[in-house]
Each structure stands twice: as C-alpha cells, then as structure tokens.
Design brief:
The protein is mainly alpha-helical. The chain contains nine helices and two strands; from the N terminus they run H-H-H-H-H-H-E-E-H-H-H. Helix 1 packs parallel to helix 5, helix 4 packs across helix 5 and helix 4 crosses helix 7. The chain starts with 5 loop residues before the first helix and ends in a 5-residue tail after the last helix. The relative contact order is 0.13.
C-alpha cells in the first residue's frame, strides 16, 4: 500500500479516533458507529491499548448504552453540568444545522471528542461519562427529551427535562441559594463558624457560561 493512498490515511484516522474513544471508556457499539470499524478490530485495539498502557486504568463497559434522560436532571448539580456541556456542544458547532451530523463522519466524531475533553477541563470531577455525553448529543440533535428554559434571575439558559412535571429553577441559582441559606440560630451559637460559600471560582464560571451561551433559538 502506497503511503499516499487515501484509504491508508482514512484507516489511520479511524484507528486514532478509536483509540481516543477507548481512552474515554467508550463502548464498542459507540466506537463502531463513529469509526465504522468492525467489532473484532475494536477488540484488538482494546487489547493493544491495555498491553501498551498498563499504568493507565481503563474499564471496558459492556451492555446497553445510557438511555435515561433523568440522569441529567436528577439534581441541580447534574442539571447545571448538563447545561454547561450543551453549551460546549453549541460552541463547537455540533448542534449547527449546517454541520454534517453523520454518525460515521470522522470529522464530526473527532469534534465531539474535542468538545467532551474541553468539558472535562472546565468541570472538575465531572459526573458525565463519555457515553452519557454522546447520548446527550444525540438527544439534542433529535430535539427529544429536553427543552431550553431561560432563568428569570440570572438570564442564563439551561436544559429542562420534558418528562418532568415540575419546573425546576435555574440550577446555578438553586445551588447558590442553597449554599447561602444558613439558619440564623446556628450563626448565633457558633461565632467562629466559617462563612458560607460564595458564588466564586467554578460556580462563577458556570453561571457566566450559562448566561452567555445560546442553547436554542
């Protein structure tokens, strides 16, 4: 095979993307959908990665991929992180109608990996796995499971579960109010009690991102 052969470079890109997804503990079915590689080749890549990278812990998830919308709205913290990830998807153009959305597009799948890795840098100790992030993207592309709401307090946008009968407030404002709500009697009895957390640091960054990001029309 000539080094200039386009099929060689395409095959190399598939393997590189597969290894990148393996590092994020993606399931075989997800890797197959994004790269077009067979299950047998993906299993060999798993074995090769485990052999050459023994110091890096990696789990190979089996079974069905995540399919529960409630995972993303189970708490205010989870809803906040989900909304931030959706904002990252918008920033990277993954929800743009003019962008090719084919699951077998290597460029689109690589862009998704870029977006997810950016999210991991923005959110410390993220609770959203690679598989959950992929499921969230597919749900947003199909416009099912979520609707976009705007907070009347901070004017930020956030995702809300369509199946929920309760209209939960903006997750960022909810977390901040919860952190600032301290019983008066406990303050009187404990003069040396540390001050309640203020909306700084990561929470301030999250709130700013929700205010500036546009998740929908």
């Amino acid at each position: 095979m000539h080094i200039s052969n386009d099929s060689y470079f395409a095959d190399r890109q598939r393997h590189d993307l597969a290894l990148r997804m393996i590092r994020h503990e993606a399931r075989t079915c997800t890797i197959r959908a994004c790269t077009g590689l067979s299950d047998d080749r993906i299993r060999r890549l798993y074995q090769t990665y485990a052999t050459h990278m023994p110091a890096i812990p990696m789990r190979r998830h089996r079974g069905k991929s995540p399919r529960q919308i409630s995972f993303f709205t189970r708490s205010a913290q989870a809803q906040l992180e989900t909304s931030l990830l959706a904002g990252v998807f918008v920033t990277f153009g993954l929800l743009d109608s003019a962008h090719p959305r084919s699951a077998r597009s290597l460029a689109y799948s690589s862009l998704f990996c870029d977006a997810y890795e950016t999210h991991l840098q923005l959110v410390r100790a993220s609770t959203i796995s690679f598989e959950h992030a992929w499921f969230l993207l597919q749900s947003l592309l199909r416009n099912t499971g979520f609707r976009v709401q705007r907070c009347r307090h901070c004017d930020g946008q956030f995702l809300h579960d369509l199946a929920s009968v309760f209209r939960r407030a903006c997750p960022a404002c909810t977390i901040i109010r919860k952190n600032l709500r301290t019983p008066r009697r406990r303050i009187v009895r404990k003069e040396n009690r540390a001050a309640p957390p203020t909306p700084t640091g990561e929470m301030h960054t999250a709130r700013t991102a929700m205010r500036t990001a546009t998740l929908g029309p």
